[in-house]
## 1
Amino acid sequence: MADSIVLVSGGMDSAVTAAIAVLEGTAAFLHINYGQRTEARELKAFNAIAESCGVRERLVVDISYLKKIGGSALTDSAIEVPEGDLSRKGVPSTYVPFRNANFLSIAVSWAEVIAAKNIYIGAVEEDSSGYPDCREAFFTAFEKAANLGKKPGSDIKIITPLIHLRKADIVKKGLELKAPLHLTWSCYRDETLACGECDSCLLRLRGFSEAGAKDPIPYRQKAAL
């Protein structure tokens, strides 16, 4: 049995969160496929990160109904992933409607079964793409709802260790913890070479640049920041 469940997408934020969780106790890793464009590449990154962290207790869940629901450039091929714009305001087309609530619900279900006390998720509020389900207030409210809806016993804590960090701080934290950043994948568009142009690539590249470090993954091209 694990002390914690860590939601590991395969991206940089989740890898740093995983490194933190592993240091603080035994962890089980959860990965969710939801019909996203880079699903296969993210799954590969998840398994590589788990291997690097020495975590054997893993669960991969498919919720491809999010692709059927649509409404996001990440799941609907008819909606193009826009060029990155780090000054953009509002909710971008890459937002997957209520995705984190779906993810957390699965994590809470598994936590009840394996008696895990904590759920870690690498959400970032201050330097994210503007997703409403990445706000601290959302996680606080969801934790309350989860504990009201689960069977009696120890309450589950939802832990967001990166919630107020900027990408540069996350890079520094990852390097400090020796998190396997070279195994991660962040690109919204491509699975072979990161595009270097989408919001996720731009946030990542800016984070490494501001941290004074070199991003270890390959890019098709790197936009000027």
## 2
Amino acid sequence: MIEALQFDFMRNALLAGLLASVICGIMGTLVVVSRIVFLSGGIAHAAYGGIGLSSFFGWPYLPGTIGFSVGAAMIMAAVSHRLKHRADTIIGVIWALGMAIGIILVDLTPGYNVDLMSYLFGSILAVPRSDLYVMVIVGAIMVGLTTYYYQDLVAMSYDEEFAQIRGVPVRRLYFGLIVMLAVAVVLVIQVVGLILVIALLTIPPFIVEKYAKSLFQMMVGASLLGAVFTVAGLWLSYRYNLTSGASIILVAGVVFFLSLAIDKLRIAGGPGTQTVS
């Protein structure tokens, strides 16, 4: 792996993966504790509409996709906030409609069409340095906003009614969280693709949640674990000529199931197995 870092594209890929790990560590933790994994999946797949829109009109990928994704995310957030009993159905419709719009617009794009596989499974080896700067800026903004609103986010994530009683602007904070999530999803799509982005958002926080004593510890632990998955996945892809995004998620998935197995063994060897003297 060390010799691979002599190439610019590998250094960019490693930096993109590490930045994505920090972004996913922060946003993924909030997604898991706020129980909005399905909503984040809807945003990820609806983002394909933004990819198609950018391709059709010749816009830069990031602004076009972020704009479309934020719009779709606002609709999903409004629905999930007001009509919770129908949220999963409407999110599923927007999820499918966004992908359909994206595919049709890509089909209608004159000349060379975009490589669908690169967006479905990621193209971390092709992330340009300009996008790395964007990821640094967005990551810094997310860290700053999360730090500033940390106590409010903790209250909202664990008990929304209690947060409202405390005077937390829950509605405004919720919509702000969804906007950050939409931006994070678009950035991470470049690394692992829209099909696998939810895994990178949810697996590290899920594993760390059992050991973290606070939301902050969970964010830090998830970011570090995501970085380990990224480095290991990149090494596998370089060593065995595999797709990078899928390799990263493969490592994450293996560790996920190992953590479940360890939990079961721990429970099996718990107090229930002790003999009474």
## 3
Amino acid sequence: MVDPLTQVITLLRPRTVFSKIISGAGRWAVRYSDFGQPSFCTVLDGSCRLVVDGHEPIRLEQDDFVLLPTTPGFTMSGFDGAVPVRIDPRAMPAPTDEVRHGTPDGDPDVRLLGGYFVFESPDAGLLVSLLPNVVHLRGAERLSTLVKLVREEAIAQSAGRDLVLSRLVDVMLVEALRATQRADASPGMLQGLRDARLAAAMREMHASPAFPWTVDELADKAALSRSAFYDRFTRAVGVPPMEYLLTWRMAIAKDLLRRDDIGLAQVAEQVGYGSASTFSTAFSRHVGRPPGQYARECRTAS
């Protein structure tokens, strides 16, 4: 059976970059500017407050896990109120010791293990749009263990380190994202997969992107009427079914265009277009530049 989540993470190609211990005590607050790369943290001890731009405040407790696939601006603080210290994560050097906020001495009120990684895929923005903006899991002991393993492996510099880290981050992402398939989760691909009927149609789209799907045919796969399927899909996933299909087709096309052994006509055929010119028009409209130019840029960059 085709697993859409596995396909998306495989195309994203996550790679671990950095992790650190963060602690806070007394009156403290930090304001991080927009970062753009995916970041994560788990609470080792204590509690603190997290406010991600555009979202309600979150109280973080021990063993809580947070994943921000694009890391917008956010404020993290204690509960006593303080003027936030502004931090630009792009300009800040990577610390080698524990980062302490607030009172420098004594036991901290909270200790977190956090970090960030990058998606090596140049198509990350398109794929991340299918994921939730904020993943917050309470009492996520399995994920806390995975994050600790990531840190230990990053520090150890042992043989095979990069391979182990890439596998750990893959598992961490899958574990975090599949745990968001709850009734109160934000709209997105995972929320659609939570609905058994919508999941049947989504798996068909992922398995056969070249097929000339229509809303009626996808509704049949979901065993729903056309209107019920369209409304239910749009509410759960956040975009209409044909827009979701287009996003997936373009993600596959971008991945194929980075290869040297496939021509434009073959790419067009594999993502459901009858000719290279029709595909080129659709790709240019969606991506902002022609597929040939995109392929050259990717090969030059690599």
## 4
Amino acid sequence: MAKPISPEKRSMLLEGNLIHAILMLAVPVMINSFIQSMYNLTDTFWLGKIGTESQAAITLVSPVQNILINFGTGITTAGSILISQYLGAKEDKQANIMANNVCFCSLIFSVVCATLCWLATPGIVGWLGAKDNIFSYGISYLRIVVLDLPYLFMINIYTAVKQSQGDTIRPMLLNMLGVTVNLILDPLFLIVFRWGISGAALATLLAKIPSAVTALIILTRKNQFIRIQFKGFRFEKSKLVSIVKIGLPTAIGGSVMQLGFLLMTKNVNVYGTTATTAYGIGNKINSLITMPASGIGSAISTIVGQNFGAGNIKRADKAFHNALRMGAVFLFVFGMILSRPFIAEPIVRFFTSDEEVVPLAVEYLSLMAMLCWTNAFHDVSQGIFQGSGHTLIPVTIDAARMWIFRFATLWFCSSVLHMGVESVWYAVVVSNGLSALILYILYWTGIWKRSTVKLDSDRSHNEHNTVSVN
């Protein structure tokens, strides 16, 4: 017998202390994000022991993998939002049906994408401008890591299902399993077996398999409140429409953003391997700095989703303000500390000993850290729009951030001011700040309070509205 979501947890999200609710959801998400980032950070660390070219190759091709991941994440993001809203409305049966539809959509997508990308890898790496060793390294790394998409998406499905119920602890523990395996395999494959960049990719792939299998076993157990059932599954047209309506903007927006990152990396590559490596290291460290904002934004998405489903708009609004204050103050203080070069430099040196890379990476990291507080405005505002189902708004702003603000700033700084590689650094921080400001202004318009999809009811649901899967 499936165990229903506890009244205490449902009550905490809908009626309890908001600071406690935000922290209970956000802290595990932050830890989980850090754990997930350890895959790339571990690769970067150990490849730094081998050479700058390997690090440059990863920086160059990683956005390709991220394009596919972000498109698929649109499906699981939609699932998390819709499941949260169903649970808030106490439509638990429909939440379960939605989870199954999300699972099958996501897994089918991941297999198709992994196959196509594996075939297209040589052409993609060549188009990015990679040559000689970086070209061969890029092909080796990308062809292996894209094969982990089905496993990664299974982990993401588990995370979406659990997080929609207010459980962020178990996804964190699941990812910790994968990272632990990766921490063991990376030095084994790179240093002991000397498999180079292919060893780093293989370690990442193999590390995700135990977590994905564990996620599948747990979600298919009969005692799970939200359970995945393969036998007799049928797609439901109304659920697919909701997933597309909520998830497609996120999927397209995320992929368009990553395509922009890909082109940015291509622009950085013009300045040489040293600049590309510094850019990659700076971005990876910055992703750690901004994790609190990301975690709080994710928590707000869940809290807003459940309260939106329950019709409690005022509480969702109050949660937004509490979360924004928490995130902005923390990032401002932490960013000011980390922006000091004498603090940033030892962190950069942890990932590289190349004396040409270090000063560039320190300069980039210091600038981003100083303005990282804008990420709190961006991520928390994004969370309230996503939780209320208005996913098109944040992805539109993010697309503008990359394709208008960032490239326009890059052009101005490089062509008019002739700032060289520093044009890239300023393009990143200016575009981030502008997109955060616009999202925050849009929040005050109250657009997020409008309903986007009509949730199916257990009482009125048409059981015949299905599409069978052969």
